[in-house]
Amino acid sequence: MFGVLPPIWSFGKILLDHQAEIKISIRSTPAFVSDGVRFIFTGRYKWPSPQEAREANAELDYFKWSRRRWLISGRSPYLPASPGSEAGYAMKVLCLAEDDCSPLVQRISKLRHTRILRVVTLKVSLAFTVIFCGGPFFVPYLALPLAQEWHWKHDCDSYSGEIVLYGQHHISQTAVISFYVMDPNSPAGLYPPNRVKAYDFKFYTPDGHNQNLRVLEYLEPSELAASNTSYNEFKTLSPFLRLPDVRTLVLDRAGRRFIGCSAGFKELITSSENATQAGIGIDDFRILTSCSEGEGTYKNDPYLQFAINDNSTSSVHIQAESKEWAYIDDAPSFSLLKYTNITSGASEELTEHGIWLRSALTKRNHPTILKVCSNAIDASVATLGPLGVVVGALNRFSIFISRPRIFSTV
Fold this sequence. Notes:
single chain, 23% strand
């Protein structure tokens, strides 16, 4: 407990014995710092007084001397003092344009250039010093917008397509999912690829029906590509831009199921026997012939997983690489891997196909707009099912982030 007292006593005794030297050193510190800074930036040990600086500049600036002063001075500090040197020096001054005078001109010019070079070097050094010392304070504000814009444009360059999710700010609003594909008119091998919008889907809660249902419905091309000059060419050149087979995806949040249909939602409701019932469920769509494009289930624990049957010989499994993917105070962040389970007789074979969907980042100053990189080649049930679940999580975050800050506590 008292072991620290002897060192403290010894240290205090040293301070008392050398207090005079310590006081002198403290008082001299500003002068030492000033001399050091002056020597680093100017190479001088002492600042000249204003009068000394003016006299030195006037004495050394020979190009401002009059001819009378050149002749009266008799000699230059750069020429030896000897009998008859005045006349020789005068001749050299009077014939500055001749070759005989070149040594004098060169020495005077060199002195002037040295002074100019020293001033320029000092200013450049000061500029670099300010940039490197103050850079950490202002460079992030300049570099961050550029970096965010670059990543927004290029994070999905190595993928087949891009999908942009526009989260809804209010429960009455409609979220939109936009698909972008490579431009067929762009040169072959162009990197990064040019992309154009293929089509849009809207995500909403149907009015007057089961509130556990969410609908992901295709928007007609007339609403989509009014300003897209390449859309008509795309429609004939690329099979990806044909009318998608899945025009409506119905998602049941309570049962964690979804089903794809080839007709619009209004047509499905008209065809359903329970069209007038508010309790219509996903099973009412399964019996419709237009809802045979595939169906699937999903779960969140322990990983986000999807099991999809698209009525082919293989079933599709999609699973997130990380357990955490949805957040109340941030946009969804995920990477979904695709697997196919091929059934051949009594044997089954699970094959991995790499990343299927991966979140990139939100748009700068628009946290409710999320870009997703996609290796999907069309808007199938295997693509729309996970997107429907993800855009639901994005909607919850959009509502949270759009509220006044006083209410934005978890």
